[in-house]
Specification:
This protein has about 350 residues and is mainly α. It has 18 helices and three strands.
Length: about 350
């Protein structure tokens, strides 16, 4: 892990967001640079335009999506629904995008429940087609005549809103929300369960968060376990992060991070890549290993196994060669220039073999 990450954290804790961004952009490793910029974007949540600009500059797709989801949540919580929806739409991962839209819906419902207000879609600069992103609407909220408004089962609640929208048949919220209890694998947990686990992760209660996450149905179980694993890795607990990794069927983020810690051991990198299904992530790891060790034909064949034919694999290898050549030129690194040439020749050979 780059030592500048600690500096970025320190600067953010001191309120020096500009300084933190400057240090974050100096981090050489693309993944850790992305992660540091995520922290910066989240620290800028009160400046939506600037926060979004930083988030969209994040290179690593999975980290960028996480940053955008986090911003959409904060914007919604702060009543900035237009900014929240615009941010959510930029999330590429469909699961995270749906979660972000759900957060916007829930906070809209909470605003209606607490204030008894009607919100015109035009006030959000939306039309009826955009409403599809907010469906299903939370229970008790209806859409009529271009407005989102309370339905007959929506109560106006004074004081703190525990759930936002309440069913008439419910007993009503208790003074404090109970810890999550999961009835069965088929039951879908309420949103407060996710918020509770996320709060535990943010506060460092990783052991309890892990226990609760293991009780969630898929895909939520894997999503939160991976977040816990990344957090463990950040704190230096690689052994426990490895244990989490073994629990997962798919692990694009944690798998790639563990792979980066073992660039000098390609056989171990391939083990982590078995659970890394994102092609862009696998490509980035393959690039890093090749930079570290030089061209390893067998490793590259396995790392790029998602490329469905030899012609495509050859084109990808040539793309990596050009990327490495650019880096070699910037750094004046003759070793990288040589590896780039070997990588290009391998790509050309593989591409030609598909034509014979």
């Amino acid at each position: 892990m780059d030592e500048r990450l600690l500096l970025v954290r320190q600067l953010l804790s001191e309120g020096d967001v500009a300084g933190a961004e400057g240090e974050a952009r100096k981090i050489e490793d693309p993944y850790w640079r992305s992660y540091a910029l995520r922290w910066v974007a989240e620290a800028l949540a009160n400046e939506p335009e600037r926060a979004l600009e930083v988030a969209l500059s994040i290179e690593e797709p999975s980290v960028r999506d996480e940053a955008l989801r986090s911003l959409a949540y904060v914007f919604s919580k702060n009543g900035k629904f237009k900014e929240a929806l615009e941010t959510a739409r930029k999330i590429e991962n469909s699961f995270l995008r749906k979660k972000a839209f759900r957060a916007v819906s829930n906070f809209l419902a909470r605003a209606i429940a607490t204030k008894g207000i009607e919100i015109r879609l035009s006030d959000l600069k939306l039309d009826e087609r955009d409403l599809e992103d907010l469906k299903p609407l939370p229970y008790g909220v209806i859409y009529k005549d271009g407005k989102l408004m309370p339905g007959s089962v929506l109560h106006r609640i004074k004081g703190e809103v525990m759930g936002g929208v309440i069913d008439r048949s419910a007993e009503g919220p208790k003074r404090e929300p109970p810890k999550p209890i999961f009835e069965s694998e088929e039951s879908e947990p309420e949103d407060y369960v996710f918020e509770y686990i996320r709060k535990l992760i943010e506060d460092g209660g990783l052991e309890e968060a892990e226990k609760l996450a293991k009780g969630l149905p898929e895909p939520f179980r894997s999503f939160y376990l991976e977040e816990i694993g990344v957090k463990l890795l950040e704190t230096g607990d690689t052994a426990r992060a490895e244990e989490i990794f073994r629990e997962l069927e798919v692990s694009d983020v944690l798998g790639s991070l563990l792979a980066r810690k073992n660039l000098d051991r390609p056989e171990l990198v391939l083990k982590y890549l078995e659970k890394t299904h994102n092609p862009a992530t696998r490509l980035m790891v393959a690039y890093e290993v090749t930079k570290e060790r030089g061209v390893d034909t067998e490793f590259l064949r396995n790392a790029l196994i998602w490329a469905t034919d030899e012609w495509k694999r050859g084109r990808i290898l040539k793309f990596l060669a050009f990327e490495m050549l650019e880096e070699a030129k910037k750094k004046g690194d003759e070793r990288l220039r040589r590896i780039s040439r070997e990588l290009f020749e391998l790509g050309k050979s593989v591409e030609n073999s598909s034509e014979s």
